[in-house]
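Task card 7
Instruction: Convert sequence to structure tokens.
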Amino acid sequence: MAGRPSKYKPEFAEQAAKLCALGATDAQLADFFAVSVSTVNLWKVTHKEFSESIKVPKATADERIEQSLYRRAMGYEHDEVDIRVIDHALVQTPIRKYYPPDSTALIFWLKNRKPAEWRDKIEQEHSGALTVEITRFGPDA
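Output:
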């Protein structure tokens, strides 16, 4: 008895690569292809071209996010053009925009990169003796 035929098509590899370059997750791939996440995972195992096609774009998208988080944590500057209408004329003014370090990004970075030093959970060690006394109530006591 054969199972259902696969919905997989060879062109899915290229489509998935493009979606992953935009940051798509496996759940979003599943939604795009109208299949379950487990089906996407099966395609990664049974179709090497599909698996290979999404590895680099996913890693590249992750690296872009990591760099953005790093720049946000450290603070950064970039060139921009301010556009305004003054006396019925369009005026473009080049400016340098500054973003100060962001404490939330800093905390997130430190908690994830150095959890032993920055996590919220504090380990407590108790020393000394502990005596437990059990008192029974009722007819069998």
